Amino acid sequence: MSATATTERVFNFSAGPAVLPVSVLQEVQDELLCLPGAGASVMELSHRGKVFIEIMEQAEASIRSLLGISDQYAVLFLQGGAALQFSMIPANLLRDSGKSAQYLLTGAWGKKAIGEAKKEGTVDTIYSAAESNFDRVPTSSDYQVKDDAAYLYYCSNETIQGVQFQSEPACPDNVPLISDASSDFLSRPLDIDKYGLIYACAQKNAGPAGVTVVIIRRDLLAKGCDKLPGYLLYRNHAENESMWNTPPTFPIYVLGKVAKWLTNDIGGLAAMESQNREKAKLLYDVIDKHAGFYLGHAQVDCRSTMNATFNLPSEDLLASFVAEASKNGLQNLKGHRSVGGIRASVYNAMPREGAQALASFMDDFAKKNG
Amino acid sequence: MSATATTERVFNFSAGPAVLPVSVLQEVQDELLCLPGAGASVMELSHRGKVFIEIMEQAEASIRSLLGISDQYAVLFLQGGAALQFSMIPANLLRDSGKSAQYLLTGAWGKKAIGEAKKEGTVDTIYSAAESNFDRVPTSSDYQVKDDAAYLYYCSNETIQGVQFQSEPACPDNVPLISDASSDFLSRPLDIDKYGLIYACAQKNAGPAGVTVVIIRRDLLAKGCDKLPGYLLYRNHAENESMWNTPPTFPIYVLGKVAKWLTNDIGGLAAMESQNREKAKLLYDVIDKHAGFYLGHAQVDCRSTMNATFNLPSEDLLASFVAEASKNGLQNLKGHRSVGGIRASVYNAMPREGAQALASFMDDFAKKNG
């Protein structure tokens, strides 16, 4: 690696695909042309060869260890992103079940998931934060789950709105709890035993785009119908240990390195959560300090540790904020095109210095323009 | 790149994921930590940012130029591999059409495609090479396509059996011709206007695993039903220029570099085909020279330029062939677990020296053991 290449790097607040640990990128770079002992790039290896099988097994073992996942659960590496999960979940667990699926709607991704679920069966949106423009998540008294529901679905962190469940929503014991954890996966410890299924596309906290991790309780694997398109049937992937067809080998390889980095360099998910809280606090503190200038979107107790969303008093100030930040090496801060404003994503791999640099810039900008 | 890393590389005859051009790997390595001008690794870039959009547009432009694809066709970059195409094709073009789909069955991949299509509607296997253990492809007199068929489907190169269509099968004008070109895509020029849809997972000739290129005639985009899972509807991807959801950014980036290599370094697909024919001839010539010792699987006029498949007189000789080849830096020659024998894959990026080294080894081995 050349010094130039390192120093060119900016602080990248992209919402996803997003920042990756530099040490992981360096390892990938070193091994890119020839993986030690393999005689070829990892991209050139058969997925059924010993070397790649070990890579995938190691990635799975690291994720199992980080989250404390028991053998009651299968861990799958799939393609198609969260968007395909929006369909696979109801196709496997709702279609022809005679039951209804219950959804908590707290943002843009939940809305898309509901749209796909409705194609497969009866869907009840038992909570919606639409009225308050998706600035909050529910408490347990805000909704009621049917005892015989097919499942209860929620999105643990809505990247576009920047709202996050601080813990799992209440759910009857016999109803499988399903979470889209795409944007906070591996950012904090979880009690996996609470879930029926939890999934995440990798490109926020866990790796590059192109691989989606699905953790599914094994009893749910029996539910999908054999007439489903084969790729959509969880059972096929579980029975073949994610080798039902060729898995996305390179994204899985990088994901495995990120999981190893979380284990060895960070010290596990509790340590990661503590760092993430600290980084988010740097940003929210400056938003609160300049309340009225920075208009935070989420209710304080629902704020995301991953994506801080806020607006500025005018479109002109917003444009100059983005432009000046960019000049200072603080990139990709524009909010999602559907909501505007600013979105600062401070995922696992965003170093504390990045969050600190942005917070200082925000403080200065508010003082100058407030 | 260190000299060590280069010299460690072996000749990799893997059937896929498979060998990539060294110059492409070197470029990827150089840019891995920081894409020039982007301030971040290509893996860290938002798919909706200017830099990545240009990468994807350039990849598409190169593929369009190499194959001469007119604007009558959409070029899509999808996930899920060929396996998901096995379902997407009949889900979009057969389901509820009142028509039947016609399949030419010449090997293992065609068989899987038929299995998925039967879930979606009426399927006629109008030709099967099963009786001769899939050693051939049909001539136009071997089958008859219904005039009102939903489509005619074939797999242009069956990797496991090593049989390849030398040109497109005859097909009535009004029936869309559909090809699984996964293992010979970009290995030779094609007349795209003959096709309704042609697709290929990238991990043979075109890039790493995790991206599938689908070239679809635009009139066929109207056919899928809105009730399909959103990811499965070609129209969604075409209307959003492969950004209906986050595309597999890194695999697309590498695919674009391979397409550029084919254009600039190789000189286009006619030149590539000529090199591929030459490489394959080296292997088939030695098989024919030692006929009786090497037992070629495919009929001579159906031999694949991509995958040479053959057996040896005994399991012992087979095992020592694989072991000795490996000692000589000739790797991944074992045939697919379903058929045994030897499979030597000599895709685009396999250098002539690799094919020559294998041919020499085969000649020596036959002389010593024949």
Question: Keyphrases for this structure?
Answer:
serine biosynthesis (chains A, B); globular; 2 domains; transferase (chains A, B); homodimer; three-stranded antiparallel sheet; 370 residues; alpha/beta; 10 helices; 14 strands; Aspartate Aminotransferase, domain 2; amino-acid biosynthesis (chains A, B); seven-stranded mixed sheet; disordered N terminus; Aspartate Aminotransferase, domain 1
Q: How is this structure best summarized?
A:
2 copies of one chain form a homodimer. Chain A is an alpha/beta fold. Chain A is 36% helix and 16% strand.
Description:
Two copies of one chain form a homodimer. The first copy, chain A, is an alpha/beta fold and 370 residues long. Chain A has two domains: 27-265, Aspartate Aminotransferase, domain 2, CATH 3.40.640; 268-369, Aspartate Aminotransferase, domain 1 (Alpha-Beta Complex). Chain A contains ten helices and 14 strands. The first copy, chain A, has helices spanning 3-7, 22-31, 50-67, 81-93, 108-117, 234-239, 249-266, 269-289, 315-327, 352-369; strands spanning 11-12, 73-78, 100-105, 122-128, 151-155, 157-158, 163-164, 177-180, 197-201, 212-217, 295-296, 307-311, 330-331, 342-345. The first copy, chain A, has a seven-stranded mixed beta sheet, with helices on one face. In chain A, a hairpin with a 4-residue loop joins strand 6 and strand 7. In chain A, helix 3 (50-67) packs across helix 7, helix 4 (81-93) crosses helix 5 (108-117) and helix 8 (269-289) runs parallel beside helix 10 (352-369). The longest helix of chain A is centred in the C-terminal third of the chain and has 21 residues, at 269-289. Chain A is globular. Residues 1-6 of chain A have low confidence and may be disordered. Chains A and B meet through helix 2, helix 4 and helix 7 of A and helix 2, helix 4 and helix 7 of B.
